[in-house]
Amino acid sequence: MDNFARLLKESWTLVEEDRDRLIGHFYARLFLLDPDLRKLFPVQMAAQRDRLVEAIVTATQVVDDPESFDEYLRSLGRDHRKYHAAATHYETMGVALLDALRSTAGDGWNLEYDQAWRDAYAAISEKMQAGAAADDDPPFWHGEVLTHERHGPDTAVLTVRALQHPLRWKAGQYVSIEAPRHLPRVWRTYSVANAPNDDNVLEFHIRTPAGAGWLSGALVRRTRPGELLRLAAPMGSMTLDRESTRDILCVAGGVGLAPVKALVEELTRWNRTRWVHVFYGARHADDLYGLAGLEELVAAHPWLSVTPACSDDPDFDGEHGEISDVVTRYGPWTTHDCYVSGSAPMVRATLRALAEDEVPPPNIRYDTFGNL
């Protein structure tokens, strides 16, 4: 396994800096091999292209951790049921991927790399299909939008009831959403912002800043109560370790509050002994849309504390600076379970701060909106 993982990671360095060419070649080859596959993908492919890169990078990072590798791929297979992926599609995608890797890597590619990726893709395909076959849930759920609340020009909080079939998720996980009325065949992942409940209702926090995807824009600006969305199977491992006795640090930036809020809600049901410290950052006070709800939880649970911070609001009556710097000022966090959620730059900065604080990597879980 060590040599296998080494070959994958080593060969990935040959194409990592030329991702656009790799992905362009992959999709061109894929649709040439099977033109009927094109109708399974959205008209605008930008978001789909990014997801391919994320999946490849994640697979090459966890391949030397067999347990994580297996669970990630099985969950990915369950998720891909929403695309109606069949065995023949997996075969075609394998051919297109190998061809794209060879073409992009150029003269640096060799037979060892080729065989390693053949073996890797065979394992990936087998585990994904096994995960899909073992799943008794539907390929996706229809969900009715119950409420839609705007918070400023670019943020909305939605509640959605999954219809017809129970949707089981864990606090801290995310699901893919499609809005077929506005953007058919476009899926994007969003964290669930509440703990599991018997009502089959999920809460989502969605932001659409300048340059954000069209789906987020549609969900914030055009979606209304009563509309139907589609929800795919839950994924993600930023979940609570109930066996741990360590205190908990949660760091949230912007709508990264969503999974942190879900984790805190889950903790209110059973926690009695673990101190929980939530740091919630944004640029301006108006962006701290979830602060009032957090403060209500603080009033009801003495083990919970919340520290808000703003990076660009000198009039804010609280902590000032980037949330990663604020967290550092309150440390050390070496003996805590740490959960981090937010934009890619915010997560990178916080992970760097926790590493400098010598927090053991197994005690850190994170979720990021965008590539790290």
Automatic annotation (TrEMBL):
Gene3D superfamilies named among the record's database cross-references: Globins, Nucleotide-binding domain of ferredoxin-NADP reductase (FNR) module, Translation factors
Record InterPro entries: Cbr1-like_FAD-bd_dom (IPR008333), FAD-bd_FR_type (IPR017927), FNR_nucleotide-bd (IPR039261), Globin (IPR000971), Globin-like_sf (IPR009050), Globin/Proto (IPR012292), MRET (IPR050415), OxRdtase_FAD/NAD-bd (IPR001433)
FAD-binding FR-type domain sequence ranges: 138-241
Transmembrane annotation, as ranges: none
CDD domains: Mb-like_oxidoreductase (cd19753), O2ase_reductase_like (cd06187)
Pfam families, A to Z: FAD_binding_6 (PF00970), Globin (PF00042), NAD_binding_1 (PF00175)
Keywords: 2Fe-2S, Heme, Iron, Iron-sulfur, Metal-binding, NAD, NADP, Oxygen transport, Transport
The keyword Magnesium appears for this protein: no
Superkingdom of the organism of origin: Bacteria
Reaction catalysed by this enzyme: 2 nitric oxide + NADPH + 2 O2 = 2 nitrate + NADP(+) + H(+); 2 nitric oxide + NADH + 2 O2 = 2 nitrate + NAD(+) + H(+)
GO molecular function: 2 iron, 2 sulfur cluster binding; heme binding; nitric oxide dioxygenase NAD(P)H activity; oxygen binding; oxygen carrier activity
Stretches assigned to the Globin domain: 1-133
E.C. designation(s): 1.14.12.17
Obligatory cofactor(s): heme b; FAD
Family membership noted in the UniProt record: Belongs to the globin family.
Protein name: nitric oxide dioxygenase
Annotated organism of origin: Micromonospora palomenae
Organism lineage: Bacteria, Bacillati, Actinomycetota, Actinomycetes, Micromonosporales
